[in-house]
Amino acid sequence: MSIKVVHPGLATSVQDLGRKGYFHLGIPVSGAMDRFACRCANWLVGNDENAAVLEAVFMGPKLTFNQDTTVAVTGADMTPIVDGVEQGNWASFTVKAGQTLSFLHLTGGARIYIAVAGGIDVPEVLGSRSTYTLGALGGFEGRLLQADDTLPIGHESTRFVERHLPEALRRPRDTTLRVVPGLYWHRITAESGEQFFNDTWQVAPEADRIGYRFKNGTPLEFVEREQPFGAGSDPSNIVDGCYPYGSIQVPAGKEPIVLHRDAVSGGGYFMIGTVVSVDMDLIGQMQPNASTQFVKVTLEDALHARKEYDALLQQAKQHIERCGVTT
Questions:
Q1: Calpha distance 123→267 (Å, rounded)
Q2: How far is CA 49 from CA 93, 99, 126, in A?
Q3: pLDDT tens by residue, 46-56
Q4: Which InterPro entries match (predicted)?
Q5: Both 118 and 216 in a single domain?
Q6: Tens digits of residue pLDDT in 153-166
Q7: Is residue 183 domain-shared with residue 133, that is, in the same domain?
Q8: Opening angle at CA 212, ends 13 and 116, nearest 5
């Protein structure tokens, strides 16, 4: 089975849950920006949670199927349409051979996840099917989808199972991002650190899979020091260090950048802290100019947040498995 790309949308790529174990070599984790939505899309069509899906940003693709299959769309609010008939989000639906899947305009969020029974069957590269476009690695020929591409689909069951996930079991799009202060917190004054968490920030236009820049907050004030050998001349420069997933660098102390799935693994900017891992999904659904606040938390708070996130994921999975009705 295969899918023909009639129109690729704005930026559509093949993604799974990511590429682990190569960060020390400078190869980022990649994978879905909203991992909760990605997992749920796969469960809704009966796939393993790590099956490859399509991630589409701001505008959905137009796809024609050559065989009957089951599809689900999760994530942002973008209604799927099959040959002119609207379908539900966060629910499985059938697409018949020869039919075309397209989408209405985006009304909320930023990214949708399109799962197809059997998964997108591109080759694994370093243990993942995720696309890393900067390195031309993985996915479909290491790039975003283009018109006339043909996507192979893995083996699937021909039986349709009706599944859905109610809104109560989806993650709300919170307007705050929890942050654990980092090793370089001492580089800014106490007053500046407090102001960073008091400010309301807006997502800048520079917001993509590499990182999200935030604007309109108060510039940071640095503690004066003699720059160490090997660091740049700006107060925000450090001797090169590792960048954890979710870390927040602030070049020149002006606009924080939260490093996301395709970010580099190290560099010469200090990091004010790290967004807790479970809130990275929320960033992936933010549109430019969306407002947010950073909230200071402890490592214990972050671990508790992960436990709550895992519990919600488990509830979602159990509901999807229970609600299946064969037709």
A1: 31
A2: 18, 26, 18
A3: 999 999 999 99
A4: CT_A_B, Cyclophilin-like_dom_sf, PxpC
A5: no
A6: 998 766 778 899 99
A7: no
A8: 25
Residue 251, Cβ density class (10 Å: 0-12 exposed, 13-18 middle, ≥19 buried): middle
- Which of helix, strand or coil describes residue 269? strand
Residue 175 reports pLDDT greater than 90: no
Same domain, 33 and 163: yes
Does one domain contain both 38 and 140? yes
- For residue 94, is it within any domain? yes
Rounded CA gap, 19 and 42, in Å?
18
Domain that holds residue 142: 2-169
Residue 134, burial from CB neighbour count under 10 angstroms (0-12, 13-18, 19+): middle
pLDDT tens sequence across 60-99: 999 999 999 999 999 999 999 999 999 999 999 999 999 9
Which is nearest to 156 in space by CA: 99, 211, 95? 95
Give CA–CA dist 144/13, Å, rounded: 5
Burial letters 153-168, b for 16+ CB under 10 A, else e: beebeeebbebbbeee
> Are residues 15 and 147 located together in one domain of the fold?
yes
pTM: 0.95
Structure letter (DSSP) for residue 218? P
Asked if 104 and 233 sit in the same domain, the reply is: no
